[in-house]
Write a structure and sequence with these properties.
- This protein has helices spanning 6-15, 29-44.
- The protein is mainly α.
């Protein structure tokens, strides 16, 4: 399933020095909600 790919994505992010704050699955619930509100506001104009 899709979770089998998670370890590959994590390893790749580490190799590429992607900071944790750029990885959605490291965010708190309030951070995710804020991000979705901001994204929605941009797309609905």
């Amino acid at each position: 399933g899709q979770l089998d790919w998670q370890i590959i994505g994590c390893a790749r992010a580490e190799e590429c020095a992607v900071p944790a704050e750029r990885v959605v699955t490291t965010w708190t619930a309030p951070e995710v909600l804020s991000w979705t509100r901001e994204s929605r506001a941009r797309t609905t104009g």
